[in-house]
Amino acid sequence: MKNILYLVIGLFLVSLSSAVLNFREPLIFNYKANIIIIYIVYLSIFIGSERSSIIGLILGLVLDVSVGRFFGLNGLLFFLLGLLYGTFKDKIFKDRVFAPIILLILAVMIDSFVMTLISNVNFNSLNLYQNGMRIIEIMVMNIFLGIIAYYPIKYIVNKIES
Description:
Elements: H1 2-20, H2 35-47, H3 49-67, H4 73-86, H5 98-119, H6 128-161
Helix pairs in contact: 1-2, 1-3, 2-3, 2-4, 2-5, 2-6, 3-4, 5-6
């Protein structure tokens, strides 16, 4: 039952991300924060790798079906994030936001790097400065939203788990 609740929350975030955030202009930079990565990273450090990896796979595949260019890429990425970060469940201090934000930064860097490489199949057009600035902008947006979302997600997970 708990997993279904996490999945329903994730599906709500996927629909919010694909229906609302994709059809409006970004506030600060040219890119939008990836609320699904934020949710998967935080969920995995709170509930562990087994459940978060399956939830990440399902949410990634739903996101790929709704807005993805490359089917299965987000599913694989979210599965691996849930699997990897779920191993940190008992190893990091979760009362403060610093350690989860560091994990979020690494996840966003991996996601941005993979998406940049796949989008620029022709490596002659790979502009390192432009793509580096893009990754930094995406990281700033995700860090900002990740700091705001950490304590509400922590509260929801604690309520569901208790």
